[in-house]
Task: inverse folding
C-alpha cells in the first residue's frame, strides 16, 4: 500500500491574488495528512501561460507561508516525484504520451469539430432543454479519415470516450456513495488544439505519478469525478480516495467571490489581520473542536483533527466574525511587547517607510505632520461618505459608473506598476470622453480618503492591488452602487468600449 500523500492544487489567478479558498483547502489537506502521518504535496497547475508567471507563483508561496502552512513536497522545496509544475511536464511531452495511449486503445478520439459547429450544437441543446454536451459526431470517423485529416494538419482536440449507459459510483469519504448517470457526463476534452492538456487529463496523470493517495477538493468538482474515475480505469490505475469539502460562501450563500467579499489572502495581510487568526477562522468554517471552543491554533487543530467532524453545511465567510476572532487573538495571545513588534513589522517597518517617505518628504516640515499624511497607507477602508463624491461636474450616477469601470479594468491587470495604472486611468477617461481630472477625482477619494494626497499612482502601487480594489468596491457601495438592470446595460457598454 502506498504511503499517504495528500495534495492540494493551485492554479495562479489572472491577477495573481492567492484566494482564501486555496488556503482553506490547503489547511484541511495539511491537517488530514498530519493526522495519518502522511505527506502534504503542493502542485502548481500553470499550463495557462498568460496567467502563470514567476511573480504569481511567488505570491502563492508567500501568502500560504505567511499563514503558517508548509508542504513536504512542492516546486520550491523539491521532492522525489517532481516536477511539481505542470508546465514542466507539458514541456516533457508527458501528457501527450498518455493521451495517445488512450486514442490507440479506442478510449479517446480526435475531434475536428469547429467552434461554430459546437456553438450551434449547444444552442440547439439548450433550446431543447438538454444539458449541453458533445454529441459524438467525430467518433464515427474511420481510422483512414482521421489519419488523412491529421496529415492535413486540421485543428483538433482529443476527447474522452464515455459510457452511454449505467451510472458511475463516486466513493466520497465524507459523503458516502454518490451516483451520477453516465448519460450526464460529457465527452471531456483531454488535449486542446494547442497541444496543452486540460485539467482533467493532467490531474489524473500527475496524481498517479506522484503516488497521491487522497485528494481533498471543493464540492464543485463532484460532477467531474466520473471523468477522473473513468480515466483511472482506462489506465488501469488505483483511484485516490476523494474528499469533497463544502465551498466557502458569501453572506447571501452564493459562492465566495471578490465581487461580494474580499477574497485575497494578501488583502487580509494588508488589513492587519493576524495569520493565526485567519487560519483559525478558515479551520472553524469547516470543522470544530470536540470542546466547541472557536479559538484554536494550527497545532491544536492538527492534534485534534478528525475527518468525521467536518461539517457539510455551506460555511459563510463573515468578515465581522473573522474580525471578532482576530481581536481575541490580539488580546489573549500577544503580550504588549509582541503586539508592538507585530504592528511595527506590519505597518512601520523600514521597507514600507522607504516607499512612503519619497512621496511625503517634500510635504512635511516637522515629523508630527508625517503620521496624518501617511495614515491612509496603514488604514483599512477610508472614512468617507457620499458627500465626498459630490463633484460640480460629475453626477453621482456617473461617479458610480467610473468606479465600476475602473474596478473591471483593474481586475484584469496582471502587472501592477505606476505606468500601467496611469495608462489604465487615462484610457478610461479617453473611452468615456471625460477629462482625466474628472476620472481621477473619485479615485483619489476612494483610494486615499481625501481629495488632496500624495501622487495617486505611486500611492496605489504602495497600497497594492488587493487593498486598492477593495477600496474601490467600498467606494462604489458608498455612492449607492449600480442596480442589476443598469449594471447589465453598463456591462454591454463596457465590453463595446474596452474589449473591442
Result:
Amino acid at each position: 500500500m502506498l504511503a499517504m500523500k495528500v495534495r492540494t492544487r493551485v492554479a495562479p489567478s489572472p491577477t495573481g491574488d492567492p484566494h482564501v479558498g486555496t488556503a482553506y483547502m490547503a489547511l484541511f489537506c495539511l491537517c488530514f495528512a498530519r493526522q495519518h502521518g502522511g505527506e502534504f504535496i503542493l502542485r502548481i497547475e500553470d499550463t495557462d501561460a498568460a496567467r502563470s508567471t514567476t511573480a504569481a507563483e511567488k505570491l502563492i508561496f508567500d501568502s500560504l507561508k505567511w499563514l503558517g502552512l508548509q508542504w513536504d513536497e512542492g516546486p520550491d522545496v523539491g521532492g522525489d516525484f517532481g516536477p511539481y509544475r505542470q508546465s514542466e511536464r507539458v514541456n516533457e511531452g508527458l501528457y501527450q504520451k498518455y493521451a495517445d495511449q488512450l486514442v490507440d486503445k479506442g478510449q479517446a478520439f480526435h475531434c475536428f469539430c469547429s467552434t461554430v459547429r459546437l456553438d450551434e450544437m449547444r444552442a440547439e441543446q439548450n433550446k431543447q432543454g438538454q444539458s449541453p454536451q458533445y454529441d459524438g459526431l467525430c467518433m464515427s470517423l474511420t481510422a483512414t479519415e482521421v489519419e488523412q485529416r491529421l496529415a492535413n494538419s486540421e485543428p483538433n482536440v482529443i476527447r474522452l470516450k464515455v459510457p452511454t449507459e449505467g451510472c458511475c459510483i463516486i466513493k466520497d469519504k465524507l459523503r458516502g456513495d454518490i451516483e451520477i448517470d453516465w448519460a450526464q457526463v460529457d465527452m471531456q476534452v483531454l488535449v486542446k488544439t494547442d497541444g496543452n492538456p486540460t485539467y482533467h487529463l493532467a490531474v489524473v496523470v500527475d496524481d498517479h505519478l506522484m503516488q497521491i493517495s487522497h485528494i481533498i477538493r471543493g464540492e464543485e468538482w463532484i460532477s467531474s469525478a466520473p471523468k477522473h474515475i473513468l480515466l483511472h480505469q482506462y489506465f488501469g490505475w488505483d483511484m485516490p480516495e476523494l474528499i469533497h469539502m463544502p465551498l466557502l460562501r458569501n453572506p447571501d450563500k452564493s459562492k465566495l467571490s471578490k465581487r461580494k467579499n474580499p477574497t485575497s489572502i494578501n488583502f487580509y495581510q494588508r488589513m492587519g489581520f493576524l495569520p493565526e487568526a485567519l487560519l483559525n477562522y478558515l479551520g472553524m468554517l469547516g470543522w470544530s473542536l470536540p470542546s466547541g471552543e472557536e479559538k484554536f491554533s494550527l497545532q491544536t487543530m492538527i492534534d485534534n483533527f478528525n475527518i468525521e467532524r467536518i461539517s457539510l453545511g455551506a460555511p459563510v465567510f463573515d468578515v465581522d466574525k473573522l474580525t471578532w476572532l482576530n481581536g481575541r487573538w490580539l488580546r489573549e495571545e500577544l503580550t504588549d511587547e509582541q503586539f508592538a513588534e507585530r504592528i511595527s513589522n506590519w505597518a512601520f517597518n523600514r521597507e514600507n517607510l522607504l516607499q512612503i517617505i519619497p512621496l511625503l518628504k517634500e510635504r512635511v516640515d516637522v515629523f508630527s505632520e508625517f503620521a496624518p499624511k501617511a495614515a491612509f497607507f496603514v488604514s483599512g477602508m477610508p472614512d468617507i461618505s457620499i458627500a465626498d463624491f459630490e463633484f460640480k461636474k460629475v453626477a453621482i450616477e456617473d461617479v458610480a459608473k467610473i468606479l465600476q469601470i475602473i474596478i473591471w479594468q483593474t481586475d484584469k491587470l496582471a502587472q501592477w506598476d505606476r505606468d500601467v495604472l496611469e495608462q489604465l486611468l487615462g484610457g478610461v477617461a479617453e473611452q468615456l470622453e471625460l477629462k482625466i481630472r474628472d476620472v481621477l477625482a473619485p479615485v483619489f477619494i476612494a483610494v486615499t480618503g481625501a481629495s488632496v494626497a500624495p501622487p495617486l499612482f505611486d500611492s496605489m502601487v504602495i497600497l497594492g492591488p488587493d487593498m486598492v480594489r477593495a477600496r474601490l468596491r467600498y467606494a462604489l457601495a458608498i455612492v449607492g452602487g449600480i442596480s442589476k438592470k443598469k449594471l447589465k446595460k453598463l456591462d454591454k457598454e463596457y465590453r463595446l468600449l474596452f474589449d473591442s
